[in-house]
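sorry for the late reply, my laptop died twice this morning and i had to redo everyting from scratch. anyway the thing you sent over, i finally got around to it. pasting the sequence first so we're on the same page, its 661 residues, then the predicted structure underneath. double check i copied it right bc i was rushing
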Amino acid sequence: MPITTARRVIKAQVLVALAVHIALALTPAVDAQGPMPLATLPLIRKDNRGLSSQGPILELAGQIGGVTYAVAVQDNRYTYVGIGPRLLVMDVQDAAAPVVIGQTGVLPGIVWDVAVASSYAYVAVGWSGLHIVDVSNPAVPLEVSVYPTSGYADAVEVADGYAYVANGMLGLHIVDVSDPLHPREAGSCDTPGYADDVGLAGDHAYVADGRFGLSIINVSDPLEPYKVGSHRTEEYVASVAVEGIHVYVTDGTRGLRAVDVSDPADPREVDVYNTPGVARGVAMGGGHAYVADGDWGLQILDVSDPANLRWTGFASTPGYARYVALGCSSDGSSCSHAYIAAEASGLRIIDVSNPQHAREASSYQTAGYVEDVAAAWPYVYLSAGRSGLRIIDASDPATPTESGFHLTPWSAKSAVVKPPYAYVVDNMALRVIDVSNPLQPSESGFCPTPGVALGVTVSESYAYVADGWAGLRVIDVSEPSNPTEAGDHNTPGYAADVAVAASHAYVADGAQGLRVIDVANPAQPDEDGSLDTPGLASGVAVSGTHAYVAAELGGLRIIDVSDPKNPREAGAYEVLQDTKGVALSGPHAYVADGYSGLHVIDVSDPASPTEAGHYDTPGYAEDVALTGDYVYVADGLGGLLILRIVPTVNRVFLPVIMRSE
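ok and here's the structure:
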C-alpha cells in the first residue's frame, strides 16, 4: 500500500521535564492486513524528507494531464474519467458540451479503471490498490479509504457490497466495501494468467485472464471463491462483458468472441468476429457490442444472434481506443452515447443513437503521454506525442491550466523554447512554432530531417537536432519561416538527445555513448572525441567542464569534457532504474528515472555523487526542467507534475513549557 511505501513522516513528539525536550522520529503504524480510512491517517507526503540534511525538499505543487484508460457512466448524467493519476467528474447531460465539475487530488499511481455504485467511485490504481472516493457531491470528490490488493489493481466491478478487483498476476481479489470507509478483505482466487478485467452475473465472476483466456469464478460465497471453468482463446483476453447466458471477450488482433456460459463449468465459443484493429475493451447495450478497437476506434457489432455476430457501424477516434462505457436507457434497450477512453487522446464521446451512423459528439483532451518538458515562466511547454505541443499556464502552480496547443503532423518528442518561438521535433522534422500568443500557437516553418528527430536544442541562430540513426543535424533558424539545414554529422549510434555549450555539441548517442562534436563551423561539424557509457545514452546536460549523461540502466554518468578530444568519466551514480533525462541547478542534478520518479543527485563532487532527494512520481518520469523554485517533470502516463523546491534550513527546536492552571 502506498501508505507503507511512501516516505516516512517525521513527527516531533516533545516530552517536557525540567525544561528539557526530546524529539523522536515516529513512524505511523499501518496494519498490513487492512487499511485505515483516510480520515484517520496521518498526513504523508511523497517527498525526500529524511534523505539528506543538505538536499532540497520536494513537495507536490500541481499536476495536469496524463493518459486516459478508465471511464464509467452514472445515470446518463455524470462520467468518471481517469486522466493520469486523477479521477475527473464530468457533467455530460449535454453530451455535445461536457463540463468538468470536479476532480480528486493526485493519486499515487495511474487510474486504470473505475466503477461507480451509489455515492462512491471505486478506483483501480495499479500497485496502489483500490481507492474509494465519495462522490455524493460530484463537484468535490473526496477519497475516503484505500485498500491494498497486494497485486496490481487493473479493473474493478462492484455489486452487493463487494468490490471485485482484477488483480493482475494474483487473479481475482474480493473486497468487502459494505462500509466504504473501512474496506476489508473478503476472499481471493488465483487465476493462471494475468487478470486484466472482470465482469459479474449471478453467482459468477468472469475474469479476462490475458493469454489464458476467460476464467470463470464461483463467487456465491465471496469469502470462498473458487474457479469452476475456463475458455482458452488464441491471443490475449483484455476485457469482458456479460449479457444473459453469453460472455463477450476481446482477444487482441483476433477480435471479439462470444462464449456461451449457460454451463459455467463447460463454456463454449459460439462465434468470433475479427475486428480490423486490436480489440481492447467491450461494453454491451441495445442488442449491440461496442468494441474499443485500438487504432481503429469504435466498432459496433450486432449481437442479437450471438452465434452470428455482424458488423453494424463504426466511429474513428484520433487516439487509441482502449476502453468503452455506455450511456443507455434504464432498461438497456437503447443507448445514446459511447464514452471512449482513448489513452493519449483523452475522452471521446460518440453519438450511437443510430449505430449504423455513429459519430463523435464531443471530446475532452489535455496533455496525454508527456515525453518532454520545457519551461519559460509562466508557461510550460509539453511534448505530448500524438497530442502535439501543449502549452500550460503555470502561473498558479496549484491549478495549472492549458492555454493552447498545436497538433504536430507526427509525434511530438521534444521541444526547446526561445520566445517567441518553440522549436519542436516530431520524429520527421524540426518545426518552428510561434508561441507569442499562447492561446493560438501557429507553425511558422519546418525543416524535414532524414532520420528520426528525437531531441533538440537551440544556440544563437542554429537548432541542433538529435536525429536517431541520422546523427546530428544542424539547422539554420535565423529565418523562422524558412529553416534550412546547414550541416550534419552522422554519429555511429542512435542520437537521442543533444546539448550545446560554447563551440561543442554533446550528443547522447544510444549504445555509442557520448559524442563530442565541434560545431564552431555549423556547416562542417566534426567529432572531437567520444566516450562509451554503460547503458544507452538517452539524455544529456552540460555545465562548466562536465557533461551529465542519462544512461538508462547505466544510471547517471558524469563526464569530464575539459579536454573535448579526450572526455573521461569523472564519476557515476548507478543506483537508479531507468535514467531518461537530466537537468542541472547549482550543485544538483535532477534526474528523471522512469517508474522510480525524480531523483536529486548532489554532484558538487563529480567523483562522488550522492543522492540528495527523491520524489516518487505516479507515472513514468521521462524528462525534467526547472525554473526558479519549481521542478517540472514530464511524467509520461502521469502527464505534467509540478514540484516545489523547499530549501532545507537549520531548525532549532525549543523546549515546550507546559503550565498547569
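Confidence is low (pLDDT under 50) at residues 1-53, 650-661.
thats about all i looked at so far, will dig more tmrw
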